[in-house]
Amino acid sequence: MAIGATIHTFEVQLADVDRGVYEDFSLRVAQHPSETDAYMVTRVLAYCLELEEGIAFSAGGVSTGEEPAILVKDLTGLNTAWIEVGAPDAQRLHLGSKRADRAAVYTHRDPAKLLATWRGKTIHRSQDIVVRSFDSKFIDAAAQALTRRNTMSLSVTEGQIYLELNGTNLETQISTHEIE
Questions:
Q1: N or C terminus of the chain: which is more exposed, having fewer CB within 10 Å?
Q2: Phi/psi of residue 128, each to 5°?
Q3: How far apart (Å, rounded) are the C-alpha atoms in residues 163 and 174?
């Protein structure tokens, strides 16, 4: 018998000063059995940092062949943002950049190694793809604070993240990288 997804809930208070987004919302996040806590934390942070009308996690929770981890669609159903999490390959980025108005990657992995895997590969509009990384110690500490029911306060100002997750206070700088 296959193991099913674990459902986590998040009560989120978001204050993204950099984008002028201030929202309180609830998330139900399905964690696939193959998905690490670090990946899920990165996925939840990416969702919060990309929050806009039409945003949704993919059906499987993790990237599938046809969809990224997070997708934003407009009211007509057209893809406006393709958001990958982790370490997608160049072909996925190429596809995503062609299928949506914009593409982004959020990773908890070593960004230098990730960027090196894409070097010399064909990626549609690679200069427009936003690549953001989080310090792995920050992600690991947030993963340690996870429970099935989570309260989360996330503030973003001048690229600095202040996260309160279930009573654990953490902070880190969001690093942005360019694909060469």
A1: N
A2: -95, -10
A3: 12
